[in-house]
Specification:
This protein is an alpha/beta fold. It has a domain at about 5-255 and about 440-455 and about 460-480: Amidase signature (AS) enzymes, CATH 3.90.1300.10. Helix content is about 40%, strand content about 15%. The longest helix has 21 residues, at about 370-390. The two termini are about 15 Å apart.
């Protein structure tokens, strides 16, 4: 096995035991990128010199016997929405194509403080607006399992990089499913944290009341370790409460005897791929074998979640995107002396069609005379969806659902049909509206393509879904399946 194929935990143990160096591990990842990324297109920027320099610094610290974090010396890829000081942050958009931030996002700073090796920035849907990573202004990312298919989105570059062993883990963002869906499509483990669990300072905002930051790794156990170092309050992000951070790595080893798992009937809809349905039902049986109890539950307002999300999301997008005006940073078309022309021309040239679509929908929904009919009504529906989860978590500890109705679809298949693309998020959006946490883990194959399951728990109860996911992965081998990319 090449070093880049190791899990984070395995790499941490190998480094500490002196079996290999961080530089060797990093060079293996860079070699994999050089070999396959011309096909996969996971990365927007690869920082080879910076990564090797970081790795050498960690090796020196290990040699000196310094006390180091488990993340030290491990190569990580960062979604290109996170500000990285001195390294381009583009949001996969022409309007920020050459933007180099003067500061680090809080989570990036935390990684650097723990001596992580940042290997590069990954491709995404422009400003995270999309579900397939086809909306990048630069190029679409391809699924390592089938280069004719999407990796999911918007964190598709991060998912593809982990699946293709170009890094050991990655960071992504999840607003309506952007960590969970690509993790399912690419056969990796992805964690959507509770709203406010991880600081969003320095991460380019899409939908401020929904955006979350999370890890994407090879196992639930790796995600537990990463979250330990990312979670917690941040004075620079008022949405992060002083909720205690659990010892996730310790919590996940406790058995799941007596754990109550709910199967919501609303998530088994007509048109769902039969193999996806079977994978979820097989997972439920496996949990029962491990000592959990599986019961049927109902989340009656699920059907309204997509409609509410696609009012709330564009409305907040229209507000957040106003800062990209061609004046302060990014692309600026100043051939005309008229200020309005600078605004219009810069945004017309710099922003893609999906971003413009959401800005227009959101501006309309927030306009005078329509606010009550659209945004206010959507927020009322959001409250109902949240209430469904709160009531159900009074009966069960975890909710088990599919992640997407189908495995990864073909590149170009949905790109000209936005509504069809939006419906792909039917199973991930409700948890986002409720602000709860969700974990995607591999659970099978459908037509040779990966299928993930989604484990949901109440807000700030990441330890429970990580524990359930870890025990499932101890009893199955789906997460060990690798794409046969050549």
């Amino acid at each position: 096995m090449s070093l880049n194929q190791l899990t984070l935990i395995e790499a941490f143990e190998g480094l500490r035991q002196g079996k290999f160096t961080s530089e060797e591990l990093t060079r293996d990842c860079l070699k994999q990128i050089k070999k396959f990324d011309s096909q996969v297109k996971a990365f927007v920027t690869v920082d080879e010199a910076g990564a090797i320099s970081q790795a050498k610094a960690v090796d020196e610290k290990i040699k000196n016997g310094d006390s180091l974090s488990p993340l030290a010396g491990i190569p990580v890829a960062i979604k290109d929405l996170f500000c990285t000081q001195g390294l381009k942050t583009t949001a996969s958009s022409k309007i920020l194509a050459d933007y180099v931030p003067p500061y680090d996002a809080t989570v990036v700073k935390k990684l650097k403080d723990n001596d992580a090796v940042i290997i590069g920035k990954t491709n995404c849907d422009e400003f995270a607006m999309g579900g397939s990573t086809e909306n990048s202004a630069f190029f679409p990312t391809k699924n390592p399992w089938d280069l004719e298919r999407v990796p999911g989105g918007s964190s598709g570059g991060s998912a593809a990089a982990v699946a293709a062993d170009m890094c050991l883990y990655a960071l992504g963002t999840d607003t309506g499913g952007s960590i969970r869906q690509p993790s399912s499509f690419c056969n990796i483990s992805g964690l959507k944290v509770s709203y406010g669990r991880v600081s969003r300072f320095g991460v380019l905002a899409m939908t401020s009341s929904l955006d979350t930051i999370g890890p994407m790794a090879k196992t639930a156990q790796d995600n537990a370790l990463i979250l330990q170092y990312l979670a917690g309050p941040d004075v620079k992000d008022a949405t992060t409460p002083s909720e205690p951070v659990d010892d996730y790595s310790q919590a996940i080893v406790q058995n799941i005897q007596g754990l109550k798992i709910g199967l919501p009937k609303e998530y088994f809809i007509e048109g769902m791929d039969s193999e996806v349905r079977q994978a979820v039902l097989d997972a439920a049986k496996k949990f029962e074998e491990l000592g959990a109890t599986v019961v049927d539950v109902s989340l009656p307002h699920t059907e309204f979640a997509i409609a509410a999300y696609y009012i709330i999301c564009p409305s907040e997008v229209s507000s957040n995107m106003a800062r990209y005006d061609g004046i302060r940073y990014g692309l600026s078309e100043r051939q005309s002396g008229d200020l309005l022309d600078i605004y219009l021309t810069s945004r017309a040239k710099g922003l893609g069609s999906e971003v413009k679509r959401r800005i227009m929908i959101g501006t309309y929904a927030l306009s005078a005379g329509y606010y009550d009919a659209y945004y206010k009504k959507a927020m009322q529906v959001r409250t109902l969806v949240k209430g469904d989860f709160e009531q159900t978590f009074g009966e069960v500890d975890v909710i088990l659902t599919p992640v997407a109705p189908t495995p990864a679809y073909k590149l170009g298949e949905n790109i000209n049909d936005p509504l069809k693309m939006y419906l792909e998020d039917a199973f991930t959006i409700p948890a986002s509206l409720a602000g709860i946490c969700g974990l995607t883990i591999p659970a099978g194959l459908a037509g040779g393509l990966p299928v993930g399951i989604q484990l949901l728990a109440k807000r700030f109860d990441e330890k429970t879904i990580l524990r359930a996911g870890h025990h499932y992965q101890q009893a199955t081998n789906w997460h060990k399946q690798k794409p046969s990319i050549k």
